Description:
The chain contains five helices and nine strands; from the N terminus they run H-E-E-H-E-E-H-E-E-H-H-E-E-E. The radius of gyration is 17 Å and the shape is globular. It is α+β, with helices and mostly antiparallel strands. The longest helix is centred in the first third of the chain and has 21 residues, at 10-30. It folds into two domains: 10-109, Glycoprotein, Type 4 Pilin (2-Layer Sandwich), CATH 3.30.700.20; 113-182, 2-Layer Sandwich (Dna Ligase, domain 1), CATH 3.30.1490.150. It has a five-stranded antiparallel beta sheet with strand order 2-1-3-8-9, with helices on one face. A four-stranded antiparallel beta sheet has the order 4-7-5-6. Helix 1 packs across helix 2.
Amino acid sequence: xxxxxxxxxxxxxxxxxxxxxxxxxxxxxxxxxxxxxxxxxxxxxxxxxxxxxxxxxxxxxxxxxxxxxxxxxxxxxxxxxxxxxxxxxxxxxxxxxxxxxxxxxxxxxxxxxxxxxxxxxxxxxxxxxxxxxxxxxxxxxxxxxxxxxxxxxxxxxxxxxxxxxxxxxxxxxxxxxxxxxxxxxxxxxxxxxxxxxxxxxxxx
Length: 204
């Protein structure tokens, strides 16, 4: 069940991470999307989601792919993101054998909101918001945990998101560039197939 604040509980997250693992295993075996009956109605809510794969125990990134916008049910979005994460084009494909030494992390996103750039320091909070920056056909996204992990300032966070979009670092200041913020509830395994915890981000 969801909590009073409308957030998912660890029990839900265990199901989501198990689903991601099944989706990866099935995709590696068949090349086809995994299918499973949705256990709860609230999992049919349209949500954005990212699946991140890290090696264990050194936690090197092995894949991070998502569905940024709430265009499909969460249950289906997790399957799509998991299949993408194990085939992230930046890295060697993650096999079922390697998954035995992989930590799965899931970030369930809120709907992106356009930011007032004239008031950007009050609009974006490190440790709370992720960013999407768009200019023309270019778009880049960084999850809320990224600036915390690297101890970035807001300025650096904006610049790095621009670079992710294939733009110049200061491109977010241009009139035609749009900046969006979003929140995320983050869950991860402590070890492969291990205990699932909710990640609470510490602000810089």
